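lol forgot to send this yesterday, sorry. struct tokens for the thing we talked abt
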């Protein structure tokens, strides 16, 4: 990377990809340890708009010295050396990132070097621990590194008891109560979101179970199953013996519903009007089926048409909002389940066809 011929007040402000070793340095970078790092103004200016403005400023007289002086203070000398080297050749080693990642992040923000800032934010984020996370978070906020801020917040949330014991947290409580408030609000929102997700998963699981129950009720009352429901066709001799069909894929749900239906048919408490919890549950399931059934006139599920007619008569009355929501969610879960099953069946059919084609081709070859 060499200095080009373009000049501005005797200083080149652009650079190209030719060896810069052949061009004499015209800038001295002064570090906190009074170390002087020679550099080329064109390279610095092309990498950082802040350094461009510094280099463009009129120079003060410094005796016989013709070099410009740029002071980079407040960070270790080695960090400044690595920073300058990055401006020439954008590369960092793991050890350099480990030792000076935080300092390089600050330098990249101050001198607006986006490539270095992005790499430092990622590297520091990978190495942040519970011991230094508060310090890193404060630096990330100052350096406008949102991804690093979010990573620090999540780490504090996940290891808050450990972070709470660190010196960084105690210092934060005394000197930056606003940041402490932001952290506590983030933790509270994260916990609330976690609870909402858990509740949503439980609700979705419940809706899927109810959807499966609706399918099993239709299966039992239409196709028949192991214990109750219509029987299959008679045998070839048209004898009076009936052949039961096998259990459905959702056997546990289907079997529980079969036992519930058998109880519902013979329960004396229901007949006497004394009330039965299991019978009430069965009635709720039958009512739910009726609410989402699209063919109630030909439906073979008990009480489907009766519940449908009752719902139509009560349409003008104030409807139960919770019941409407339940109907909608179960119907949605049923549609999603049917869609996933159809996709699964299509994939199985496609796999079977491909297997048959493969066998047929193999037979032709061999």
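and heres what i got for the seq, position by position
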């Amino acid at each position: 990377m060499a200095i080009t011929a373009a000049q501005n007040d005797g200083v080149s402000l652009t650079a190209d990809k030719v060896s810069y070793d052949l061009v004499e340095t015209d800038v001295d970078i002064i570090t906190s340890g009074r170390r002087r790092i020679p550099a080329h103004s064109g390279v610095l200016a092309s990498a950082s708009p802040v350094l461009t403005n510094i280099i463009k400023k009129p120079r003060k007289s410094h005796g016989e010295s013709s070099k410009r002086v740029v002071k980079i203070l407040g960070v270790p000398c080695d960090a400044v050396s690595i920073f300058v080297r990055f401006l020439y050749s954008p590369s960092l080693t793991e050890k350099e990132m480990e030792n000076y990642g935080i300092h390089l992040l600050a330098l990249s923000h101050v001198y607006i070097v986006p490539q270095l800032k992005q790499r430092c934010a990622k590297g520091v984020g990978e190495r942040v621990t519970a011991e230094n996370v508060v310090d890193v978070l404060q630096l990330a906020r100052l350096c406008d590194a949102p991804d690093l801020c979010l990573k620090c917040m999540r780490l504090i949330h996940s290891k808050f008891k450990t972070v709470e014991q660190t010196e960084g947290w105690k210092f934060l409580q005394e000197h930056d109560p606003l940041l402490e408030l932001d952290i506590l609000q983030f933790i509270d929102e994260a916990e609330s979101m976690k609870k909402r997700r858990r509740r949503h998963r439980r609700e979705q699981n419940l809706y899927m179970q109810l959807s499966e129950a609706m399918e099993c009720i239709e299966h039992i009352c239409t196709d028949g199953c192991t214990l109750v429901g219509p029987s299959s066709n008679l045998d070839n001799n048209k004898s009076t013996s009936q052949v039961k069909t096998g259990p459905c894929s959702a056997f546990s749900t289907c079997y529980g519903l079969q036992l519930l239906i058998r109880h519902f048919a013979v329960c004396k408490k229901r007949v006497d009007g004394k009330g039965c919890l299991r019978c009430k549950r069965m009635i709720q399931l039958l009512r739910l089926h009726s609410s989402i059934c699209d063919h109630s006139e030909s439906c073979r599920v008990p009480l489907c048409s009766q519940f449908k007619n009752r719902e139509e008569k009560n349409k003008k009355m104030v409807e139960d909002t919770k019941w409407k929501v339940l109907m909608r969610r179960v119907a949605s879960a049923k549609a999603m389940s049917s869609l996933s099953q159809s996709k699964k069946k299509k994939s199985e059919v496609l796999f079977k066809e491909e297997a048959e084609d493969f066998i047929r081709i193999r037979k032709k070859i061999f």
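The chain has a mean pLDDT of 79. anyway ping me if u want another try
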